[in-house]
Amino acid sequence: MLARRPVFVSYSQPDRETAYGIVRCLEGEGIECWVAPRDVTPAADWAAEIVEAIAAARVMVLVLSGSANGSPQVRREVERAVHRRVAVLPFRVEDVLPSSSLEYFLGSQHWLDAFPAPLEPHYARLCRYLKSFLAGEATGPGAQGGSANATAAAAPPSSAALQELERELACYIGPVAGLLVRRAAAHCADAEALLREVGAEIESEADRRAFMSAARQALRARG
After folding, report:
1. Which whole number is the average pLDDT over 122-150?
2. pLDDT value at position 3?
């Protein structure tokens, strides 16, 4: 029986070195990955093992490039992940947009940019995001409730406000924004503390200021 591994790495053949660099970084931090051909059982049905590995994963890291855009195999893997409700996190290694066939499945997904070189800092950023993502998955819905420490003078944001905050943050850090916001909302005492915590995930100071300004306006509007 195939071992369950939380991260499935999808890539086209020209991006193999990058994909294996991702795997080395993540596994060095204790995050188990499934990647072909390394993890295909000898003499096994290749396609069946890929389908099973995707179904067992929590998130697919898609190495997004011009080559991936033209790869039928990558498209099939992404299609399977979406069908099985596995989160897809594009790791964009070239300044390209998803092809129309990939865009159909990715929809409004955001991505992590892995340029300019070198790749190592981008691997580290990906690792940090995936740790947060997987920790949020493990925590479960019970961690999404309001903070018991919230004060009457600074009530926690409403559900609508949190959704707006997730959308704002996703513009800067991608699809892990929802999990980060919900995890922070579970223990932050008020909206300002919540903004400071999730805003710290944005590396660029200018982007962080823009996010904080837009997020405060959104929270005031939503209540």
Report:
1. 62
2. 64
